[in-house]
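Sample intake sheet
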Amino acid sequence: MTYLVTDNCIKCKNMDCVEVCPVDCFYEGENFLVINPDECIDCGVCVPECGPGAIFSDTELDTEADKWYDINMKYSLIWPVITEKGETPADADEWDGVPDKYDRGLMSELPGKGS
């Protein structure tokens, strides 16, 4: 089991989750965060800190588990690690709950600043 960041983080990216992670397994993209599944210790402390409710156990995702595992793994290998909360996007609340952001091409593949 591992925890994965999913669709609702795209363009919401509040980053409260990164500060509670005991193993620093979050990586930052321009408008999205991911968790490295191989580094995650399955503690779940990040889940209640995620304002947009975008972090789930892979066992909770059913048919979407492979998709989000692959996305989290791919970008955690190329984006910088983030351990401190950065600035939440100004329009994050407007994007919270918007469905299918990844499938609509709204996730940027560009790296974030990291910390």
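Comment: The two ends are 26 Å apart (CA to CA). Helices lie at 16-20, 65-76, 92-95.
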